[in-house]
Each structure stands twice: as structure tokens, then as C-alpha cells.
Amino acid sequence: MSDDALVTRYRSHRLSGARGWRRHVTWRIVQRVEFTIEPFEEGRPGRHVTAPTDSLRASGLDVEVGPFGSSCVVDDGAASEIVATIVRLALEHGASHVNIDIGAAT
Question: Domains of the chain by range and CATH?
Fold first, then answer.
């Protein structure tokens, strides 16, 4: 049975009040780590900006880079290690300022 069929079956049983068939859901807690590294020149980011993002991407994270900052979604338990990596690499490569914001991913 396909996943779509299972979901349809689950919904129909839950809506009809049928018993005996339950679907277990595993929750994954994640955090959104947003960071801004300065100095930043749009179109010409220095190594202090690219080193942290390259490292995060190499570890398998999807990093969004924008004109006002970058972000990635990480497992709750890995957030502190990710922040440490961002700060360490940015400062090692000449960053003058690193701003970090962590919040629940939506």
C-alpha cells in the first residue's frame, strides 16, 4: 500500500471514529539558526562569509543566503555546535561582527 493510500486510510478511519488502526507520528524538534556576518558586501562576500556557509553545506545542511543574513534549520541538539562553527570560522577569516538568532523553526 502506498504512503498516500495509508494517509487516506488513516484520515478516513480517524474521521469515521473507527478504532484499531492508528498511525504513530515521530516528532523532530528543530531550530532555525539565522546569522549575519560583517562586513558584508552584496555580490562579493569575503571568505569570512563563505567559509561558514560552505562548511554547513558540506555537513549536509541547506543554507539560505540572503542580502540581510543567512539561515539554516538544524536538529535541536545540534544548534550549539552549528553556532560554534559559524562563529569560529567567521572570526578566523576576518569577520568584524557575527550576529546569531535562534528560534523555533516553523
Answer: 30-104 (3.30.70.930)
* Residues with Cβ within 8 Å of residue 104, at least 6 apart in sequence: 30, 31, 32
Contact call for residues 79 and 29 (beta carbons, < 8 A): no
| Tens-place pLDDT, residues 41-88 | 778 889 999 999 999 999 999 999 987 899 999 998 899 999 999 999
Question: Which string of DSSP letters, residue by residue, matches the chain?
Answer: --HHHHHHHHHHHHHHT--S---------EEEEEEEEES--TT---HHHHHHHHHHHHTT---EEETTEEEEEEEGGGHHHHHHHHHHHHHHTT-SEEEEEEEE--
Task: Answer for the pair 81, 74: CB distance below 8 angstroms, yes or no.
Answer: no
58's grid cell: 558540506
Whole-model pTM: value is 0.72
**What residues are paired with 100 via a beta bridge?**
35
